[in-house]
């Protein structure tokens, strides 16, 4: 049990958790110092009231004077208050302050017991004071207070035993028995102090970790390339990251508390935000809980641009919140357009090539068939006359020549497309080239009435 | 305020090394102030203890009871007379100890509390809180000693002064019933009462008395009547 009670929580020196822990401790010390400063003054007034009620006057025959107990309550009580109140005011949270307070508090107990004539009931003030001192969570504060109580009983046991033990000749260890009861209470108060300190250390470690997580989350959100916006169930903005400001031109101060739709969407699309919120809400927990839509958004100056909105509903203790991710899709759409155009061009080119090949197929096959056909005739008809065989060879030659020219033209075309066509400069007659082209196509043009 | 926030005006977190008043110039006046303060406290404490431990003036009762006292005897028991100043707050402890002694010595003594009634004082002044307290003690007889005749007859000087006479009128005990002013606890008077037997003999036992001076106990240089008249309101 003691091991579990006093299990240490390790904190690295000068770490954030260490700073938080020491800050907690200081706050407790200062707050308790102030509490005791007020308590001292209250005790002083209570002491004066008790002295006035119990023994206001002393008599010498027929003449009365202020009772020494009342004077003691006024002056010694005030003097006792003075130092701890001053220290709590000027040096709150310091070690010396709480130790002085501890000592003065038990002195107040003694004074109160004295003024009330040693009443046993007044002794409860000592035990109550020790419990109050444990609020500091500093077990060392209990030490001087306990020593003073033990020493008081020890000294009274020697010089005035009747005042504390009610006996003229008590046992010599009687003061130990009285001090033992105080130590009995101290034991549990010290355990409570250690537990309190351990709890504070644990809280400091957890708080430091939470702060680190929060800071990391904040950095993540701020460094996101998309706008990350948190809205409530009424679509009012709660959080607004830097990218959202860059995208839409609004600062966080300008948008927080305002409806998101009114700030980032044109009127025709605003209903979509509520639809997506509802869609996400209905599908919480499912793989499709993020509702997306691609629409146009509008920035602060009213310019529209394409965006993609993704809405995710998040149930929290403070009600359902929605995380809205907005991505500027302008670049993507441009890229899509370029790809689309490139695809169309490629398809056109492909179609042109197919048409070309379809046309060329006939042009290539025809002379090739002629060559092969007449060659076969020559092989089959060895007894034909020379004139016929000469005609066949002539036809084969002209077909070959035509085919070669065709292939050369095709290769030249490929070279031109590959950028490897070499142009040779030589003299020529443009008139003759035009005349040859016209004569070549005259017959067909006349046939088509061109 | 969010948990974990370290306030801008939070003090430095190390309560020891950040004790800025520990700088050399400040610690000297602070130490001197604390020493002076401690001296004042100890002085006041000493004054208080002196008041508590200082016994009142011891009376001088006659070894044989005077006639004024003899008439009070109503049985063959020893007579215990406790002389009280009606307004003395310290005598509450005397009455408490008397009640305790009476409880421990049930029926063995005849107890009488004599309240001094000085000249010029009203009955309300005499029969105040202390009288009422004594009335509540069962078996205790109360006497309003008009003009302090009985007080003077045994020469009692201090409130709480207790005189015990045997049934034959011999002085057995003279002293107080408390260990200190307004302090309850073991005392020689109660110890005598609890331990007395008819076979006890010897010199009268004495003990210090703690209480306010009685009006009928003047200073050595003046008569009781002159002192009371001079100081009467």
Helix-strand blueprint:
The complex is a heterodimer of chains A (450) and B (233).
Chain A: H1 2-5, H2 16-54, E1 57-60, E2 63-66, H3 68-90, H4 95-115, H5 124-133, H6 142-159, H7 161-165, H8 174-222, E3 227-231, E4 237-240, H9 242-248, H10 252-255, H11 260-264, H12 270-282, E5 290-298, E6 304-316, E7 319-328, H13 330-380, H14 386-418, H15 430-447
Antiparallel strand pairs in A: 1-2, 3-4, 3-7, 5-6, 6-7
Helix pairs in contact in A: 2-3, 2-4, 2-8, 3-4, 4-5, 4-6, 6-8, 13-14
Chain B: H1 24-53, H2 67-70, E1 79-84, H3 91-104, E2 110-117, H4 123-126, H5 129-135, E3 141-146, H6 149-154, E4 161-165, E5 171-175, H7 188-195, E6 205-206, H8 224-231
Parallel strand pairs in B: 1-2, 2-3, 5-6
Antiparallel strand pairs in B: 1-4, 4-5
Model description:
Chain A is of the alpha+beta class and 450 residues long. In chain A, the strands form 2 sheets. Chain A has a 5-stranded antiparallel β-sheet with strand order 4-3-7-6-5. A two-stranded antiparallel ribbon of chain A has the order 1-2. In chain A, a hairpin with a 2-residue loop joins strand 1 (57-60) and strand 2 (63-66). Chain A is built from 15 helices and 7 strands. Chain A folds into 3 domains: 2-213, no CATH class; 225-328, 2-Layer Sandwich (Beta-Lactamase); 334-447, Signal transduction histidine kinase, dimerisation/phosphotransfer (DHp) domain (Helix Hairpins, Orthogonal Bundle), CATH 1.10.287. By secondary structure, chain B is of the alpha/beta class. In chain B, 35% of the residues lie in helices and 14% in strands. Chain B has 8 helices and 6 strands, in the order ααβαβααβαββαβα. Chain B has helices at residues 24-53, 67-70, 91-104, 123-126, 129-135, 149-154, 188-195, 224-231, and strands spanning 79-84, 110-117, 141-146, 161-165, 171-175, 205-206. Chain B has a 6-stranded mixed β-sheet with strand order 3-2-1-4-5-6. In chain B, helix 3 packs parallel to helix 7. The model of chain B is unreliable at 11-19 and 219-233 (pLDDT under 50).
